[in-house]
Known about the structure:
Blueprint: H1 3-23, H2 47-56, E1 71-79, E2 82-89, E3 102-108, E4 115-120, E5 139-146, E6 158-162, E7 169-173, E8 176-183, E9 186-189, E10 196-199, E11 205-217, E12 223-233, E13 237-239
Parallel strand pairs: 1-13
Antiparallel strand pairs: 1-2, 2-8, 3-4, 3-11, 4-5, 5-6, 7-8, 9-10, 11-12
Amino acid sequence: xxxxxxxxxxxxxxxxxxxxxxxxxxxxxxxxxxxxxxxxxxxxxxxxxxxxxxxxxxxxxxxxxxxxxxxxxxxxxxxxxxxxxxxxxxxxxxxxxxxxxxxxxxxxxxxxxxxxxxxxxxxxxxxxxxxxxxxxxxxxxxxxxxxxxxxxxxxxxxxxxxxxxxxxxxxxxxxxxxxxxxxxxxxxxxxxxxxxxxxxxxxxxxxxxxxxxxxxxxxxxxxxxxxxxxxxxxxxxxxx
Length: 240
């Protein structure tokens, strides 16, 4: 099945779920706050490549002023204990890694303890959906973030856990993104530690945001944290 066929099928499914919200927002048809903040991220396959690109090419922060980080509108709905979300960005959303490491997140009443995210990045293999460490394809995570006193991220949160599995589906096309069939609760594997991980964001959506990622290294060139920066809430969120 080609991309256009997948987009048509996904849009049809989501349209049925979002109904009234999508009718009022008929131009939207279609896809982590992820980051890392733990010792253990360096154990993810391909992290050396990620680190090299982050230092030499600044791939993680180059997207901070791009218009695809501005979400003009987001339509979200819940059905059968799952969340569906349709986003329209202000600009074309990169799928080839040219935008660096960034993503979109759905915040619920669980706040930073459990977040549904879709993300793209080349240079680190942290998802079962990626073909290799340099694959920038969009994929989902459930993550938890924290603001830790004394943490090198300062006032920015860092990831404390992240699923290796990709709950639900994500499709990106032009300036549209669909995050669909996101379960209220998910059990998988923590990509940072390999330990079992259960995160329960629920379905009570509060906001939709975009973000970029920034790694922090110490004087010995070891990873201290990966920070979630430039968090931007959607201009308008329609909830069904």
